């Protein structure tokens, strides 16, 4: 106690540390019950064809309504779900929900509509993953071609040969594979060309630099790489018309970002993209 008293900064630091640790424990504790309390929901964000402006798909993004006043976006708690392993069961729920919703949208609004679902490395490595994908599709009566699974570069690096085998099995089902946050990881370009990948989602970080000539050159190089490998691109984080115009000039591809739509509830998404007449 005496030693601490003579080092006030250390005491303060300790306190701040333990408070942060306690908050994190509380958060984890709450997360453990969030699923059974039905506090998770999905927000959907449109993915748009840059040439035709048509909304062709939606990405499902996890949301946590922790209390009536606390609504969290995925960025704030996904890492905790991964740390605790909870992402495996929550991720399965996400997959099932998104497939059910996609089936409804296809049935009632747009028969070719697709849904894109984020997959954590832990899910991809799980022995039952392929079975879970098949179950989700079967339960929703959704054709495999309507589903896109988003996988990060880091997930492919952890156990490359196991990941390759899993991707091949996903592909054999007819499900598409997108590499998420493309350009921020360390994937080997030579390996990328040998994996059954349908598209790369170019990280929003690159869109931020489009106002500089060097940023545009870099963007163009990424798109050309994708084209050389015969892979589609989805430009993430498009917030301005200027960014969109630059990308549209670079080639046939897709875009996602606040310019086209914010992540939103099923009701809002349906109204905004399928029943526009009602808004007029
Ligand atoms: P992501 O897959 O790259 O998703 C895009 C993130 O960028 C989302 O954040 C979205 O809200 C945000 N965003 C969309 N358009 C724009 C834009 O124009 N500008 C900016 N600045 N941001 C934009 P969110 O929902 O917080 O998700 C963060 C990350 O959490 C996701 O990144 C994804 O990696 C992960 N995630 C989300 N839902 C799930 C899920 O169900 N399962 C797993 N395993 N991961 C998920
Ligand atoms: Mg994603
Ligand atoms: Mg992304
Ligand atoms: Mg991203």
UniProtKB/TrEMBL annotation:
**EAL domain boundaries:** 24-277
Q: What protein name does the entry list?
A: GGDEF domain-containing protein
Q: Which organism is it from?
A: Shewanella morhuae
Task: Recall the taxonomic lineage recorded for the source organism.
Answer: Bacteria, Pseudomonadati, Pseudomonadota, Gammaproteobacteria, Alteromonadales
Covered range of the whole protein = 427 to 706 of 706
């Amino acid at each position: 106690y005496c030693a601490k008293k003579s080092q006030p900064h250390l005491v303060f630091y300790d306190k701040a540390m333990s408070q942060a640790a306690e908050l994190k424990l509380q958060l984890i504790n709450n997360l453990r019950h969030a699923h059974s309390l039905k506090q998770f929901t999905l927000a959907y964000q449109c993915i748009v064809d840059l040439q035709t402006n048509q909304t062709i798909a939606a990405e499902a993004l996890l949301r946590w309504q922790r209390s009536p006043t606390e609504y969290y976006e995925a960025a704030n708690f996904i890492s905790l779900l991964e740390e605790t392993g909870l992402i495996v069961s929550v991720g399965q729920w996400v997959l099932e929900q998104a497939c059910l919703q996609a089936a409804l949208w296809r049935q009632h609004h747009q028969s070719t509509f697709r849904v894109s679902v984020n997959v954590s490395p832990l899910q991809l490595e799980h022995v039952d993953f392929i079975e879970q994908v098949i179950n989700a599709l079967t339960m929703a009566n959704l054709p495999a071609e309507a589903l896109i699974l988003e996988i990060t570069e880091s997930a492919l690096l952890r156990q490359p040969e196991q990941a390759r085998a899993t991707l091949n099995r996903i592909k054999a089902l007819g499900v598409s594979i997108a590499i998420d946050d493309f350009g921020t990881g360390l994937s080997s370009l030579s390996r990328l060309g040998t994996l059954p990948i349908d598209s790369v989602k170019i990280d929003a970080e690159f869109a931020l630099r489009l106002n500089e000539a060097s940023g545009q050159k870099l963007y163009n190089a990424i798109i050309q790489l994708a084209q050389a490998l015969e892979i589609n691109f989805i430009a993430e984080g498009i917030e301005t018309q200027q960014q969109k115009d630059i990308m549209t000039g670079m080639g046939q591809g897709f875009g996602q970002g606040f310019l086209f739509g914010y992540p939103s509830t099923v009701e809002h998404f349906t109204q905004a993209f399928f029943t526009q007449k009602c808004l007029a």
